[in-house]
Amino acid sequence: MQAKKRYLLVLLSCAFLAYCYFGGYRLKSESARLPYENLPTYVDINEQFYDRDLESSPHLRRTGGTQKWASNTVNSNQKCRMETCFDFSKCRGEFKVYIYPQSEESETATILTPSPSYQKVLNVIQESRYYTSDPSQACLFVLGIDTLDRDTLSSDYVRNVPARLQKLRLWNEGRNHVIFNLYSGTWPDYAEDSLGFDPGMAILAKASMSVTNFRPGFDVSIPLFHKNHPEKGGESGFVTTNNFPVSKKYLLAFKGKRYVHGIGSETRNSLYHLHNEKDIVLVTTCRHGKSWKELKDERCDEDNAEYDRYLLCQTQY
């Protein structure tokens, strides 16, 4: 009888210790969960942890803490949304767009002429019904300075942009401004975020923007257009006569540079898989940059030859 009691006591003790061990582990695991896992589904996670994420950023630690507006929103380029970085009070009337005069953005008496590509963008805006020459009536502001090509090796690269931006009396840290960009960074890395200046709270209308840097509901993804792309296309009545589906030789075509490494390399290095030389023509070349031969891969010679083969046919697709 005494033996049974001892065995029962040992069994109960083991059960109690097991409960304490596994129960404590469960409590510890639940406390280690991310705080937003226990929040109701209707809570905006970005709003709940806005300040916490920014306070932990290296930039704000270097500058001595958080930087907030009077409206209790955080002055952070990466966190910008329409409700935090855009002044809707400027858009109460008719929607209008203002383009800065190039003379206002020039540091010297010499006015920098925009590249033909950027001038096309400005021309389209100026000829639209949304353009205004009165900044007090504008909802959006567009720079007269050319920001399309931010490759330091390009002849269209504009220098001293930060200093020029600070001289704009309506810049206001970029709020309600739109910045157009096609290329950023330079050879051989072509880093996406290398504009060479801080866009602040400005909306980026940018080509080849990754999901990492794209700010949903704020930035605008635009196609990468060629320098020879026409400012206006088609003859009168072309839209109504050019019905879909169209009868063309090529269904899909692309002809351009291939970056062996860095931004854009993963996508363009895979285009040859789709190239069938019939209705899908996707050809690339490794020949760009001063030392492209030092970085070329095993497909470069073949790709370069295929690229040259379609040189005379590029106007057909």
UniProtKB/TrEMBL annotation:
A Pfam family it matches: Exostosin_GT47
Q: Where is the Exostosin GT47 domain?
A: 94-308
- The name on file for this protein is Exostosin GT47 domain-containing protein
Question: What family is it from?
Answer: Belongs to the glycosyltransferase 47 family.
One annotated GO molecular function is:
glycosyltransferase activity
Q: Which domain of life is it from?
A: Eukaryota
InterPro entries recorded: Exostosin, Exostosin_GT47
Q: Which GO terms describe its biological process?
A: heparan sulfate proteoglycan biosynthetic process
Give the record's keywords alphabetically: Glycosyltransferase, Transferase
